[in-house]
Amino acid sequence: MIGRLTGRLESSEADGTLLVDVGGVGYEVSAPLGTAGRAAAPDGSITLHVHTHVREDALELFGFASATDRIAFRTLLGVSHVGPKLALSVLGALDVTELTQAIEREDAPALKRIPGVGLKTAQRIVLELKGKLTGLAVGASVKKRTTPAPTAPAGAEAQLLDALVRMGWKNTEAERAVASMIDFDRPLAELLREALGTLSR
User: Fold this and answer.
1) What is the pLDDT of residue 140?
2) What sign has the CA pseudo-torsion 154, 156, 159, 161?
3) Residues 189, 167: contact at Cβ < 8 Å?
4) Under a CB-based contact definition with an 8 Å cutoff, are residues 64 and 73 in contact?
5) Looking at residues 136-158, what average pLDDT do you find?
6) Which of 68, 164, 171, 197 gives a 20 to 30 Å CA spacing to 92?
7) 138 CB neighbour count, 10 Å cutoff
8) Which SS3 state, helix, strand or coil, does residue 50 take?
9) Phi and psi for 58 in degrees, rounded to 5?
10) Predicted TM-score (pTM) of this structure
11) 49: helix, coil or strand?
12) Once rounded to an integer, what is the mean pLDDT over residues 134-161?
């Protein structure tokens, strides 16, 4: 079984499929949208935490930017009638903290807004996963509660934020990276490298 891959990202498709070159071998990995940006390192490499899914007719690799995301994916697979593709769609729309909050609030309508998730599936996710993801999200939840709301960015900050979102990062992640930076009187490319370095840690 493959548990982790570190290599060079060769291509990224609109559906989240990544091609990662590891020592001259290209691995095709399905991942939640935005994973490529979150998993990238400052040196241009990418590290993915991998779930190997074996079927009678295929062996598929699913990659995640963190071990926490992979645990959430595997937990979702335990829900009745939720397969790998649907689990990826859920994690591409909501990060682990947002997913946990929706489940704990029993907010099935929020889950139903995710492409491919019907009302019955949303209700099953809430029913079967309530209380099971809270440990994964607790650290991020504490950080969100203790971090003051940032002011709306402008100028170079706004350009940087827009660039990060276009690369697939969620707004909340991009905003945290921008808020952690001080000197914006630099070329956008340099700012982007620093922000990506922050997000990859």
Assistant:
1) 44
2) negative
3) no
4) yes
5) 52
6) 197
7) 12
8) strand
9) -165, 160
10) 0.68
11) strand
12) 57
Q: Worst-scoring range by mean pLDDT, 7-16, 28-37, 149-158? A: 149-158
Average pLDDT over residues 108-117: 91
Vertex 129 angle, CA 94 and 81, to 5°: 85
- C-alpha dist (Å) from residue 21 to 10, 26, 48, 88, 196: 6, 4, 12, 22, 20
DSSP classification of residue 17: E
Give the DSSP letter string of the chain: ---EEEEEEEEE-TTSEEEEEETTEEEEEE--TTHHHHHB-TTSEEEEEEEEEE-SS-EEEEEESSHHHHHHHHHHHTSTT--HHHHHHHHHHS-HHHHHHHHHTT-HHHHHTSTT--HHHHHHHHHHHTTTSHHHHHHHHHHHHHSPPPPPP-THHHHHHHHHHHTT--HHHHHHHHHT-----S-HHHHHHHHHHHHH-
Asked if pLDDT for residue 193 goes beyond 60, the answer is yes
Give dist(CA 82, CA 93) in Å, integer: 15
